[in-house]
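so the lab meeting is tmrw and i was supposed to have these ready like two days ago... anyway. pasting both below. for each one the top line is the aa sequence and the line under it is the structure tokens. i havent really looked at them closely yet so no promises
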Amino acid sequence: MPEDSERVEEHVPSPLVVEEKEKSDTKQMSSWKEPSIKEVPLPAYTDNEALSTEKIGPLEDAEEIVTHVIHVDDDPSLSPWTFRMFFIGIGLSAFGAVLQEIMYFKPQVVFVSVMFLTVLAQAMGTFMAAFLPKGGAIGRFLNPFPWNRKEHTAAVLMASAASVSALSTEALSVQKLWYGGYPNQVAGIFITLSSQLLGYGVAGMMRGVLVYPTSMLWPANLPITSVMETLHKPKAETRKRFKVFWIVFAAIFCWEWFPEYIFPLLSAVSIFCLADQNNAVFTNLFGGSQGNEGMGFLSVCFDWNYIAGFGSPLWMPLQTLTNSFIGYLGCVLLSMALYYGNIWRAQDFPFMSQLLYDGSSNSTNYVPYNETAIMNADFTVNNTMVDQMGTPYLTATYVNYLIVSNAGMTATIIHMLLWNYKEVKQGWAWMTMANMKMLLRPSTYMFWHQSGSRTEEEKEKIRQDPSIDPHYKLMLDYDEVPSTWYFCIFAVSWIVALVCLYVMKSTLPWWGFVIATLFLFVFMVFFGAQNGITGFGYNLQSIFQMLAGYMFPGRPLANMYFTTYTYNGLSQGFLLARDLKLAQQNKLSPKATFTTQVIGCVMGALLNYVMMISIVQNQAPILESAEGTNIWSGAQIQQFNTLAIAWSIAPRMFSFGAIYEWVTAAFLIGFLMPLPFYIMHRFFPRQKIWPYFNTAIIIWYCGELFVGLNASITSYYIIGYFGQFYLRRYRPQWFVKWNYLISAALDGGTQVMVFLATFAVFGGSGKAVPFPTWAGNLANNFDRCKYNANG
């Protein structure tokens, strides 16, 4: 990870030789006044087709990526403020929010992706521009000019902010189904709104750290911005790129029907399991086509939906790929050693599982722990019953995940302090005495009087700052959103949340909510910066649940609401910071970005809540059942409740002297892990190998393979190294022109196929249509590994 903004080359994903950078001398544009198109001077690298003849050296640092892959140009005459933008943005926001909440209560969860929204918005915008009336006053209002990139970006940002499932709806569902209901509907609405907006307010106040610097690349945005450029540049400039995008899009759409539906063997080809189909060790090590089957080591996957399920390897930075690969190998060794060494009675429980197990389990009979038997009538844990039933057990692979997650959390903090102290310090720069006094002034909260305009001196200071993203410098003539706007969102959300937590009888004390807020601020700096630089998103849910278990023992409801305002607040903050960067790369004005994101957040939260209420009221018996149906399932909320109960007895399971004491000791170990690499760097500063290692990423990936389908890992790294190492080093022109565009086409085509298949054949509409069984489609045994029905 990067040390500081002046040494980007040491942490951006490539060990390549630096070539002289070509700088853009783009003139600053005046603010938009009329919705008319005009020509503007463009910098180098604005003609995509010209890249085929322009010599480009290996791309070394973040600035070279953002100025070669994304063109540093802007047309300030383009306006996002149109009827089309609001119509499409609000429509897609409603679609995404409702769909995501419905899918949360389905047996198969499908996530609405930004790439999917980008493709939908483009289709709708192009259609409206072609068929809405253009003449007269009505035409000028409905269809004033051709569908443009800024309208497209604004609509996508609005829909992206809405297309999530608020974690508060999990807690509210659990409270309704298992904890006596929620006594106040209004409080439930405002808990959902406040939990979604709280993280946004914090991320907005920290955008100077998380968004503006060049080093904050947010790599997941690169394919989307590449597609935006291709779709909205003149066709004469991008004809070939446009054609290739849609060819790849259509090809992957057609191909995905085979590994996803017709020929599932293609999703997990394991030579070892094909060679020996009765070997349980081979299943644990090489299997990975079924949930919790095995680690998928050396399996080959031809299904892009699984390969890029948590992010395309083509945009994942090389440094992140390398560190995660080291951790992945460590995970294979650790998991096999723990299980076959029978550590923590590992062989008495499944190789992979996230459930709690009773101590009476053995290698042939896994007995789930009866969680309801240890609950009091007031929904607190009965310690006497826990004594009688005994402490529950976990699988060794899950304990390993908890250990490395905790160690990775503290390792991240130390790593950022050692290598990125400048960024971390900047994250708290706003906490000055002058700013604290300003918060006491009534005028601070009169945000409607604040224009956000800068003086020429302020603009020039930013232009001269080498750490600031060139794309942000190009937008300095747009009025900025004052930080007090974000502070007002945070302050109102905080007050509303505190009141609602008491009205809802959450059992979370006021001081617990204050601590949650402090965690939100601290972790937003460390983990937000790590996410922006490396593209690696750290899953902190289990960590916050464990911390809540120690702070609020015996209170599962308090555990869930504490997690809602920490983990969910951070996740929402990261998503909105990523989208702020997307707006910056596409030159959408800050106030348009702020408006669309707030509308999206509010719409998404309200529709999440409405759909949750409807589903829980009408499907309660099914959601409470263990098996569910092929239409509705309560698996997600049941798991959230189970973990909350488990962490409520955390002191019995994880304290020093308990069976899983290493889970707690890992916090201390994580503090030490980054030190050897930093010490070696101080002794040998000329060697770039030491800062290249990111111990936080390595450690976390040492527990990566504890759940899910793992057969795609080998293919993931092969494709990732092909793009980020081979193309970027030896074919930089191809890398600039095709890497992110093809990644976007693969993502888009796959996500459209999965979305359609979910409702057509996978049971999303209520009726599943399974493909007939044949040699390439054996139920529960796609990769031919030994299938263990008990596991």
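ok protien two:
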Amino acid sequence: MPEGNTRSMTGGGATHRAAACAFIILVLAIYGVENVHAADTTAISVGRPLSGDQHRLVSPGGKFALGFFQPAGGVAGSWYVGIWYNNISVQTPVWVANRLRPVSDPATSRLAIAPDGNLVLFDGRTGSTVWSTEANITADVRNGTVAVLLDTGNLVLALASDASGSAAVLWQSFDHIGDTWLPGGKLRRDKRTGAIQGMVSWRARGDPAPGMYALQLDPDGAPQYVLLWNGTREYWITGNWTGRIFADAPEVAASSGSSGYTFKFVDNDDESYFTYNFADNSTVYRFVTDASGQVKGWFWVEATQAWNLVYAEPKARCAVPRVCGAFGVCSEGASTACDCARGFSPRIPPNWGQGDYTGGCVRNVELQCGKNSSGGGGAAAGSRKAKMDRFLEMDGMRLPDDGRVAGATSSGDCKNACLLNCSCSAYAFNGSCVLWHGDLLNLQDSLGGTAGRLYLRLAASELPGARSHSKWRITVIAVSAASIVVLVVTASVLVVRATRRRWIRARIQGLSAGDGRVISFKYRDLQSITRNFSDKLGGGAFGSVFRGELSSCTAVAVKKLEGLRQGEKQFRAEVSTLGTVQHVNLIRLLGFCSDGGDRKLLVYEYMPNGSLDRHLFRAMPPSYSLSWAARYRIALGVAKGLAYLHYKCRDCIIHCDVKPENILLDAAFAPKVADFGLAKLVGRDFSRVLTTMRGTIGYLAPEWISGEAITPKADVFSYGMTLFEIVSGRRNAEHGAFESAAAASGTDHTTTTFFPVTVARMLAESAEEGDDVTAFLDPELEGNANASELRRVCKVACWCIQDGVDARPTMAEVVQVLEGVTDVETPPVPRYLQVLAGRAMHASDTCV
């Protein structure tokens, strides 16, 4: 705080204490006091410290609490002072004071106002200062400081200037962010001092000490965020802020219609910073730099009493340095990011169960060389015991980047050079010899052409079955005999596979003829028809999809499910039910596989034209520009498919993830809703559904966030958001072309960054100017569209995205409107659109 501000405060200690009390009373009067227990306090002032794990400092509205706590999974006897959400069932710390120095006894430790006016944590056993705000407070005002916790989650050390309660902030936790960025906080750069405030991860689950990962503004001054490892190594960037989005992270936009948040960048002479807020103050959201090295966005859903992940970067988990720790191997395509190399086990198994792999792995059996050598690994010790260690050949690996080049000129010499040094953990030879000593870090498998071959050193007992040179002749004879047997067995297997493939093909033909049943595949069958899952079509929240061929003219799509915890019997029963769900606009489920463990797969009919997003947004080749007639047929077909799921099935099926990526197109560009069965397979555990819907926050109905019960109307909302994109050919948060269209029509909409807002405004104006609605269209259509159909679609879209569940139509009603059977009235502008529009709209304002 500038010195002049403190000097303007005058008066004795009693005056300041009275002013502080007045300040507290004013704050409580403004916010109201909720959920305050007898052991809670509303302020820490001189003579009123906080002590013990049953005492808390609670914010005026009861949203946040501060006190002593032990992190879940932490070390017993280690206590911290932190801030967490007061009214949710899962204790979630958002700020920790003494990250580096826990205290052992909260009963005797005190968080108090010290004689110098600072807020200080005293260790009860030693009496020493563990943590302090370290604000520069002048002597004349030291007795008037008070600490309060605001409903934003901001801990403030302030003093009252007079009895009116206006306060000068001396220190605040929002200027010292830990691993969590709350709404209203700033990630900033102080241009006067050059200091950069970022988010620093915890060291591990249960350990709030500063970790190795940090998100901060670009040190070079660019308006972008960078993720750093160890403060120096940059491994992900958002790209520059364009005023609307980050260039390389477009999902973070200036505003979001479905969640009601605004995101902005401020740059002035004193500082530059980003901040964000929500229109609804009851929204519980947090950005976290996770111990895994990813930046994650979490919503709290009251209905499910769980945090739901809606954002994570970088998406490539293996891009995070040391994400799997020592001797951990990272895999992008696996259901879990990390696994220990052979011969190793997780160092901290509970953390691995929570997705924190940074603790790495430890050897199951110590190396014999190191175990029997007392020195640094001399040649004599190595020659005695090195033969007890062997090497595991690991193909397709990303080699660690801290190897040392040795002088060996052959693979054998390189191997011996590693064996003769007890600290050597691995070697690689590709014309030159590279040795690695100590822990191996940043291992990654399945890298294809960029991969190398690594030889990992293990104790001999970890690689059983070694044969000595004296048994070489016997081995050759045995191998020859085995080869003959293998040839016979292989021929038999080929015959059996061919026969089974013909059987599978016959079963598929039976399905086409109306059999109505699904096939139970063996895992090896799906490996065969997909060529060991080599042709990947894409991936989504629930797994990856691969192309398979039953014959030269019969293709299928095979989806490998990830993270599904259903039992065998339940899974089979659910899939059998889904097999009876048949509609021309729903993807056909042909079969499934459930061979135990994680081997749960679904087999669908193959859609040659891929997903709708490919053609709307030109997401990937090949893509085609869809005519208006094709888009209208797609909109109608999707509505019919969803109406069938909601009302024509034996049980109502809520899709939960309607978006262009989940609308597939057959050879004739007829739409088929995909992944509709996945919501049923995960049951009504919507926490799990939301957790896996990363990157689709723009399609989520408001009730997902507010915690209300989920109904089919959640699908209606998502369908409405999809309709806007079918019309515009762009993501709802992209608006450049529509600004141009607005300018051409003489209207001023250059500040609109969310397409539904543009539709709401332009439709209202076009209704007064001759019903010209073609400005909404994808520019590639050049205005070629049926005006009445276009207006009908836009009206339906506006109705579908209403805030209130009851105000939205059913999908059956949507079908009737799009078919022209019934007309639709003029819809009101949804409340959240008024907020996003940045101006007050009258209640009479309408979308059309």
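from a quick look at the 2nd one: The first helix runs from residue 3 to 7. The chain has a mean pLDDT of 78. will dig more after coffe
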